[in-house]
Amino acid sequence: MRKLTVILLALAAASFLLAGTVFSGETAKKAKHEYVGAKKCKTCHKDKHAAWSETGHAKAFSLLSEEEQKKPECVKCHSTGTKADGTLIENVECEACHGPGSDYKSPKIMSKKKWKADPETHKKMALEAGLVMPTEEVCVKCHTKEGNANFKEFKFAERKDKVHPVKAKEGK
Ligand code: HEC
Ligand code: HEC
Ligand code: HEC
Ligand code: HEC
Fold first, then answer.
1. pLDDT score for 171
2. Measured between alpha carbons, how far apart are the two ends of the chain, in Å?
3. Would you state the pLDDT for residue 32?
4. For ligand 1, is residue 93 a contact (CB within 6 Å)?
5. Would you say 100 and 14 are in contact if contact means Cβ atoms under 8 Å apart?
6. How crowded is residue 93: how many other Cβ atoms within 10 Å of its Cβ?
């Protein structure tokens, strides 16, 4: 029974994501990139991961009751997407904003050494491999009144620095 619920939920979430490519806001081109989960990003982005873990996004799924966690109409904004194996990625993880990372996370692209040697080329490669540098458009897919009884006013400029506040270093 539980297994069936999990499968149904995964299917529902997958069809939601496909239906509108709602969160990536892009076309079929991106559909081939898979979600991998924040643990993969943590390997290299420890500080960002630690900062994100402290935010509401990292706990968004637990705001839902057990019943609501089975409802696609709630899950869609309180989760990230499904991995290739069908597992739901709960909470609003890195890839909900930065796009599914199976391809851009590759050390051929996101390598400290290579990136530093030629940042422009590697940034371009990452974007071509599905990386999204989020603008307001990405946020308002979820931060909207539609289907969201808990909507609060959303000001991108005020909120964007709260998503993973890491102390600025070298002016960045
Ligand atoms: C193999 C290590 C590695 C993995 C895994 C990895 N990254 Fe990166 N990432 C880097 C490096 C190195 C850079 C280059 C810029 C830097 O040093 O921060 C980078 C750059 C980025 C940038 C652009 C930064 C900029 O300055 O333009 C984003 C956004 C990003 N990564 C997100 C992610 C996300 C999300 C994941 C997980 C899906 C991920 N990365 C996985 C190492 C990695
Ligand atoms: C997949 C849906 C989704 C996306 C995309 C999304 N958010 Fe959120 N956001 C949520 C949910 C759900 C909450 C409520 C979390 C809570 O209250 O614990 C939230 C809460 C927040 C909060 C309050 C966090 C806290 O610690 O209380 C900030 C700030 C925020 N979002 C900023 C952004 C910004 C900026 C973007 C775009 C770059 C964005 N969000 C994209 C779903 C999303
Ligand atoms: C369109 C996206 C979206 C949908 C659909 C959605 N939520 Fe949310 N939910 C959010 C966002 C965004 C926030 C954070 C509000 C903010 O900080 O602006 C949130 C916050 C919440 C909160 C925290 C409220 C608070 O005041 O701290 C609860 C509880 C919640 N949602 C439950 C649900 C339930 C139950 C459903 C399904 C009936 C649902 N949500 C559907 C986006 C959504
Ligand atoms: C709620 C949306 C959201 C989530 C979740 C999120 N990010 Fe970001 N991220 C952003 C925004 C917005 C920027 C700034 C983009 C810009 O400046 O153009 C950013 C920038 C970055 C950068 C570039 C360096 C910087 O500080 O500008 C890296 C690297 C990065 N994020 C990694 C991650 C990783 C790793 C995770 C998960 C642990 C994550 N992000 C989760 C929205 C998000």
1. 30
2. 50
3. 86
4. no
5. no
6. 24
The type of residue at 19 is A
Nearest protein Cα to ligand 3, atom 16: 152
Tell me which residue of 102, 55, 103, 63 sits closest to 79, measured CA to CA: 63
Indicate if ligand 4 lies below 6 Å from the C-beta of 164. Answer: yes
Residue 113: burial class (beta carbons within 10 Å; 0-12, 13-18, 19+): exposed
- The 10s digit of each residue's pLDDT in 76-105 is 999 999 999 999 999 999 999 999 999 999
Instruction: Specify whether the backbone of 38 is left (phi greater than 0), alpha (psi in -120 to 50) or beta.
Output: alpha
* Ligand lying closest to the C-alpha of residue 104: 1
At residue 166 the predicted structure's pLDDT band, cuts being 50, 70 and 90, is confident
CA separation for the pair 74, 71 (Å, rounded) = 5
22 near 57, Cβ under 8 Å?
no
